[in-house]
Structures are given as C-alpha cells and as structure tokens.
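Weekly structure sync, notes
Attendees: PL (lead), two postdocs, one rotation student
Agenda item 3: pending single-chain targets
PL asked that the sequence for the first pending target be pasted directly into the notes so everyone works from the same version. It is reproduced below exactly as submitted, 176 residues in total.
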Amino acid sequence: MLEIIIGVIVIISFLLLIIVINNNKFQFSIIKIDKAEEDISLYLEKKKELLNRSRPVIIKELKLDSFLEDLDNDLDNMNNFEEYELLKKEYNNFFKTLDENEKLLKSETLLSILEDLNDNEEDIVGAIKFYNDTVVEFNKLLVSFPSNIIGFFKRYKKKEFYNDEKREIFEILNDK
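Predicted structure, written out during the meeting:
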C-alpha cells in the first residue's frame, strides 16, 4: 500500500514538474516577445523622427510643396506591423528621391541623417529577427506536446511574424 501511495506521489510530482517547466517556457517566450516589440517600437519611432528631419532639407533643396506626406498620418493608432510597413514605404521613397537627385548628397545635414537612418535600419532588422525567432519558439510550444495543453488552457494564440522574414523563410524552403 505504501508503494502505491509513493508511486502516485512520484507520478503527480513528475506531472507537476512538466507543467511548471512548460509554463515557464511560455512565460519566458512572452517576456522576450514583449521586449522585442518594445525595441521595435522605439526603433520605428526613431526612424519616423529621422525621416521627418530629412523632409525640410529635401523640400528646400528640390523646391517641393511636400515630401513623405504619409508621415503625417497618426502612427500612434497603428500597431507595430502597420507602422513598420508605412515607414518602410516612406523609407524606400526617401532613397528613391536620393537616387534621382544626387545633388542632395552634398548636404551635410542629409548625410548625417542618412548615416543615422542606416544605423537605425540595422537595429530594426536585428530586433525583427529576434522577434520572429522568439515567435517561432512560442508557436512551436503551442503545437507540440505537452506544452500545447498548457497553451490551450491559458488560451494562447499563435503570434504573427513580420512579413519580410516570412517571405525569406518561404523562399528558402522553396529553394530546397
């Protein structure tokens, strides 16, 4: 009788240990995702500020009425995914304008902004890679046993990736 009680206690302890370990994996992934989202948000805010600083210089040099008008949209009501897409579009427009007007590259102010934008872009790419890698871990936990049971009871949902990374993964898989 004592062996049965000890066996049940060992089995229950083992199950509790598995639950705690898998719950901690979810919690750790959520903390990392939140940190990555916070970093991405800060880098996107800096990108917006840098693009806004470039606007008056380009408007003055090219004698334009306006430039990068979409930056006037209320980005505070957008999530990071939407803000990222909008700023990526405006960033590409910025470089297209630079390519078409080489005289802009003579401006020291614009060159300084350009250098800061390039550094910022590297930071964004790194933060998005970290975010996407962490989301992969989280989504794996949601579909693999026994962690999927905890995910089900905690009502966790799969997280989205940033598009560029998904496209790259898809292209890599198609090349094989």
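Discussion points:
- The longest helix spans residues 2-62.
- The CA atoms of residues 169 and 175 lie 10 Å apart.
Action: rotation student to compare against the earlier draft before next sync.
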